[in-house]
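Example 3.2
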Amino acid sequence: MSDGYDIPRPSKINFKETAGESAARIYAKERQRVEKVRERIARANGMPYERKRRRGSDPERARRSAFIDDMNELDDDGLFGNFSFGSELPTFASGLSRFASRLFGARESRARDIFDGPPPMGNMNPDEYRAHIRERFRVAQQDEGAKEYARQRAARRDAEAAAFHAEMIAEEREEREAKRRRRARAAQAAQNAQAAAAETAASKREEAQAQKTERARWRKRCTALFDVEVISVELGFADIPWPVQAAKGVGISIVLRPEDLTTENVKRFLFALADDEGTDRRKILREAIRLFHSDRFHSRVLQRVKQSERERVREGVDVVARILTDLLSAK
């Protein structure tokens, strides 16, 4: 610098924006608008979103630019421009996103770059190019949304089919388990019935054997009473070998009461005795008649009965003699 003379600073030369630079600027701005819309939808649906930022950009300048862009979006009729500020976001997008998040977990909601770069402007002016970019983004967004909806619908069908298959497997498993339990119960019931039948048969065999033993003992008692002279013993009603058999508790015992001297009891006892010995039933009846003949019984046995029991014994003998005579006549 010389005395009294200032060298002027070089002025900044602003070159005219080329068509490529204008296309890149418009494309970047429209893409930023699309990403903001996507970001709001993603965050409203509780999904993550990552927006690309230019490296080295001034934060304050970026904040002002974002504010200006947001204000412009309120006036412009761009992507989703038919929605007013603060209006409800598309329920279709939010509903599918919530369903996908629950079914498949959170996924990345980063918008893919629909173009590899800004398309050439050609003969379009900036406004026409901006409208062209918005329409291309809108069509691409719509196509991408349709593909996403189809993918989620297919995933939902697959999930429903898998759930139905799992339910069918569970029902088949439960049915097999129910059949197994029914078979087990039936087998246990059959086993219990078999055990009960075996126990009943054993009890009947034991009872039949006890009755057979009692009938054989009746023979010996008749021999001891009618064929052996026993004078010193005083007999009671229960000591007489009546040709009947009656249940007394668990076992089988001779009759102790006059009421048990019935036709059915005498018939059952003597016919079973004939079967035990393989003897004709008429023969057994004749032998019994001989034993309980009134004259023979009174002369050989009644005199040895206690005085207090004689009338009961006499009546019992008369009843038995009459029953035996009727049975023999019937045969």
